[in-house]
Design goal:
The complex is a heterodimer. Chain A is built from nine helices and seven strands. By secondary structure, chain A is an alpha+beta fold. Chain A has two domains: about 110 residues, Beta-grasp domain (Ubiquitin-like (UB roll)), CATH 3.10.20; about 140 residues, Orthogonal Bundle (Fumarate Reductase Iron-sulfur Protein, Chain B, domain 2), CATH 1.10.1060.10. In chain A, β1 and β2 form a beta hairpin. In chain A, α5 packs antiparallel against α6. In chain B, α5 packs across α12. In chain B, β6 and β7 form a beta hairpin. Classes of the chains: A alpha+beta, B alpha+beta. Chains A and B meet through α1, α2 and α3 of A and α3, α5, α6, α11 and α12 of B.
Chain lengths: ~270, ~650
């Protein structure tokens, strides 16, 4: 268990957002992280800084993390102004020290968006995303009531596209990257994943209306087509899905508005 | 002494489950809403159980320490989920999946449970497909399969390298639907800290809110633990950093037996350790072994050379050599030990010498880089991110790492522990994988337990509990349990120590890995049993836990978990010492055949060892549940 002997260490200065609680004011505090192995992950660097703070009797930096392999969506740092840091297609936990120059000053902040209040330091409350899912992000199928899996064929390209959307890890970087704090990419990913599949057709209209309305109600902003969301997405979920969701939304809204009561009318549009 | 009645139904193996469902008591639909079930954990087992029980009409409260149920560590499973669909027409059947799982577990699992698992596996795939899980498809639109270790048929369903994520999101969507419908109340950031047992029955839990520090009492008619495994006792593992054993450990200290703690799985294909700052190890899915070939140089002096310069004749494809019929798809325990053996011989590669090559050059020549990329692209990406190396151009380096725990709380056929009213699902229980789990079987078990087993077995217990009879949360047992939680927390915060928790977790992990890892000996385990209590004493005298209990305090969270790992680690080593045989992942060097394979002792050890807590400072009691094989003949595992 030794560090790679051939690698040179690097040292950086961290400017970290510290905030004791949701209603307390926050501020940046500087820490030195010295002689780091470049193969260390960004979060491992914070572990080391935290152990040093603990030994000194100071409170360590609170930051959210869990799987540390880019899939659980827990980690949520804004590094030098970018959600999940400088690299495309990775989460904060997959950012490595080797991406920074020796002597660099690195600013570390929590995801910033009105629907994501800060709980402490770099940790925010993201349960708003769960609430959108609960409003309609599912196919209603009671356990035990499913037909044989191969009785519902799905064309390979459709399944692949649905999978592209389904990759969303629910981290909220899209919201943090958007100047409007819009959750359109997150919602579009779920709406598209389920709306593309034959199993999801029955509730397609209901789903998109319910999810979009819940998103609006929770204070997320609107999309103004800047695509910062997909650029920050650790799974590169495409903003094309937003266009897809908008089509679904308009179609469901028209359907709801003009064909409410009479089943004979609703078929004609 | 605990009463261990496995409640295995009588009759022929293939009829047991059907018969048991018919014979179990039911709860009247109008009465279901009068029962409150506390589900702890929301991974595959917890979410699927909570959603399904709510669909049935029970009132469910679901507790997760994560900020969202979607973050549970089931999400990290990469490779796939097994099911006996036989869509490939390659000779698969419920019996074959059952047999492979029993054999893979080295004849240390319960026959009836495993057969049921194989039976319901087919329903799981139907359920998940109907929920919209985007499984891989063939061009005709039907489901695709791939092979996994320990099987000679292709029965693994998958969604790229993210099967666990997609299955969990399916279960999470079912859970979300029931939350929205009011059937499940969700409590996030809420960690279970103790179990409340009243008149011998599990009737509540104590939780600590990780954001506010608030400690709360919850009363219920039954408690379901689906809190995962305890592999983080080794510190470095493929588990998520927060994965912990506190819920099952506190239940153990309240009387639930802990079965086979020494059955811990080391996964053969992980990215090797690179430095002492390391916080976790990352798995490279076993599915890579479908197309990757594992080798080390034949000669020690070649180990530091560029692998591309080592001639074909100078490479030792040791799995293909030792196990010609299973080759690179030999089961996990066997592949891990083989890797350890070649590294111990001095033929390991990489800076530390603790690594073997996983080489795709043959597959790339045969199929083209694009096909390999399509199959495993995201795994190559992960490898590149971590190591800064390109696995398409140069062989990956891998080494075994702690990955899964087959042991867990003892449960009967109904998945109820020996404490009535306490159910244990998924990785947290012990029953289905014996001494070694086959790849793609953990997802299957988690979902089998949650979607199909518990909804059919919990009624039998609840039918005997009067509706509305659950005790109030001001019962003295609740106060006692809450006081216990508060006293652990205040003790930890008041230690006038100097070292951070991580310091002790690392040292505990080193003891566990050195003496109770891939190969174990009597001397080593005795040494571990001396060192762990010493280190634990030092932890309680010198750990430094900053901050207060009344706020979000990650140091305190980890300190509570590590305090439990110290106790669990000791039990794990004691179990390993007492089991004087080798079986599956439990390899005692004293018990092996001349070729290095596991030598079981079916005379003395064809049983589950279920440890019972006897109180602070007293040795635990070792109960046994004999394993009777009615249908399968116990034999020496052979993968040659």
């Amino acid at each position: 268990m030794v560090a790679e002997s051939s690698t040179k260490t690097i040292s950086v200065t961290l400017r970290v957002w510290r905030q004791a609680g949701p209603s307390q004011p926050g501020k940046f505090v500087e820490y030195q992280a010295k002689n780091l192995n470049p193969n260390m992950s960004f979060l491992e660097m914070l572990d080391v800084v935290n152990d040093e703070l603990t030994v000194k009797g100071e409170e360590p930096i609170a930051f959210a993390h869990d799987c540390r392999e880019g899939i659980c969506g827990t980690c949520s740092l804004v590094i030098d102004g970018k959600p999940h840091g400088p690299h495309r297609a990775v989460a904060s936990c997959q950012t490595y020290v080797r991406s920074f120059a020796d002597g660099a000053v690195i600013t570390v902040e929590p995801f910033r968006a009105k629907p994501f209040p800060v709980i402490k330091d770099l940790i925010t409350e993201r349960s708003a995303l769960d609430k959108i899912q609960q409003a309609g992000g599912f196919i209603s199928v009671r356990t035990g009531a499913a037909p044989d899996a191969n009785s519902i064929p799905v064309a390979k390209d459709v399944a692949e596209l649905a999978m592209d959307a389904a990759q969303c890890i629910g981290c909220g970087a899209c919201v943090a990257a958007c100047k409007n704090a819009s959750a359109m990419l997150f919602v579009a990913a779920k709406v598209s994943h389920l709306g593309l599949l034959p199993q999801g057709q029955v509730e397609r209209g209901r789903r998109v209306l319910a999810m979009v309305r819940k998103m609006d109600e929770l204070g997320f902003g609107s999309c103004t087509n800047q695509y910062e969301c997909s650029a920050a997405c650790p799974k590169l979920v495409s903003h094309d899905f937003i266009a897809r969701m908008n089509r679904d939304y308009i179609s469901a809204l028209v359907h709801e508005t003009f064909a409410p009561a009479s089943p004979t009318m609703s078929g004609g549009a | 002494m605990a009463q261990l009645d496995s409640k295995i139904p009588s009759g022929p193996l293939a009829d047991k489950w059907r018969k048991h469902k018919v014979e179990s008591k039911l709860v009247n639909p109008a009465n279901k809403r009068k029962y409150e079930i506390l589900v702890v954990g929301a991974g595959l087992a917890g979410s699927s159980a909570a959603a399904t029980l709510a669909e049935l009409g029970y009132k469910v409260k679901c507790f997760v320490f994560h900020d969202s149920p979607r973050r549970a560590h089931s999400i990290s499973a990469q490779g796939g989920i097994n099911a006996a669909k036989n869509y490939q027409n390659d000779g698969d059947s419920v019996y074959r999946l059952f047999y492979d799982t029993i054999k893979g577990g080295d004849y240390r699992s319960r026959e009836a449970n495993v057969h049921r698992l194989a039976e319901v596996s087919v329903n799981i795939i139907d359920q998940c497909a109907a929920q919209g899980v985007p499984f891989a498809r063939e061009y005709g639109g039907l489901l695709a399969n791939r092979s996994f270790g320990g099987a000679q048929v292709s029965r693994t369903f998958y969604a790229r390298g993210q099967t666990g994520q997609q299955l969990l999101l399916g279960a999470y969507s079912a859970l979300s639907r029931m939350i929205g419908a009011g059937g499940v109340e969700l409590f996030s950031n809420e960690e279970m800290s103790d179990l409340v047992v009243i008149n011998g029955h599990a009737k509540g839990i104590i939780t600590r809110n990780l954001n506010t520090g608030q400690i709360r009492r919850w009363s219920g008619d039954a408690v379901i633990l689906a809190t995962g495994g305890y592999g983080n006792v080794y510190n470095l593992s493929t588990y998520a950093r927060q994965s912990n054993a506190t819920a099952i450990w506190r239940a153990y200290k309240r009387g639930a037996c802990f079965a086979n703690p020494c059955f811990t799985q080391i996964h053969p294909t992980c990215i090797p350790v690179s430095g002492d700052y390391q916080s976790k190890l990352t798995l490279m899915s076993e599915s890579l072994r479908n197309d990757g070939r594992i080798w080390v140089p034949k000669r020690k002096e070649d180990c530091k050379k560029d692998p591309g310069t080592i001639a074909e004749d100078d490479r030792d494809y040791y799995l293909e050599r030792m196990y010609p019929s299973f080759g690179n798809l030999a089961p996990r325990d066997i592949s891990s030990r083989a890797a350890k053996r070649v590294c111990d011989e001095g033929r390991g590669v990489g800076e530390t010498g603790l690594g073997v090559y996983l080489d795709f050059s043959d597959a790339i020549n045969r199929l083209g880089e694009n096909v390999v990329r399509e199959r495993y692209g995201n795994l190559f990406d992960i490898y590149h991110e971590i190591t800064n190396e390109n696995g398409y151009k140069t062989p990956m380096r891998i080494y075994p790492a702690m990955h899964y725990t087959m042991g867990g709380l003892w449960v009967d056929y109904n998945l109820m522990s020996n404490v009535p009213g306490l159910y244990v699902l998924g990785e947290a229980n012990f029953s289905d994988h014996g001494a070694n789990r086959l790849g793609a079987s953990a997802l299957m078990q988690g979902l089998a337990d949650g979607y199909f087993v518990i909804p059919n077995t919990i009624g039998d217990y609840l039918a005997g509990q009067k509706p509305g009879s659950r005790p109030p949360a001001d019962a003295p047992e609740f106060k006692q349990a809450e006081d216990n939680v508060r006293s652990i927390i205040s003790r930890l915060l008041s230690v006038p120590g100097k070292e951070p928790v991580s310091h002790y977790h690392k040292r505990l992990g080193q003891i566990m890995w050195t003496y109770c890892g891939m190969a174990r000996t009597k001397e080593g385990l005795e040494k571990a049993l001396q060192e762990i209590p010493k280190l634990r004493e030092e932890f309680w005298a010198n750990v430094k836990v900053p901050g207060s209990e009344a706020t979000l305090n990650q140091s305190l969270e980890r300190a509570c978990r590590v305090a439990d790992f110290f106790e669990l680690g000791e039990l794990l080593c004691l179990d390993a010492l007492t089991r004087e045989e080798s079986c599956g992942s439990h390899f005692r060097e004293e018990y092996q055949y001349p070729n290095g394979e596991c030598k079981r002792d079916d005379e003395k050890f064809a049983h589950a060892a279920a440890w019972e807590y006897q109180g602070e400072g007293k040795p635990p009691l070792r109960n046994i549940e004999p394993l009777n094989y009615e249908s399968v003949k116990m034999s020496v595992r052979n993968y040659k």
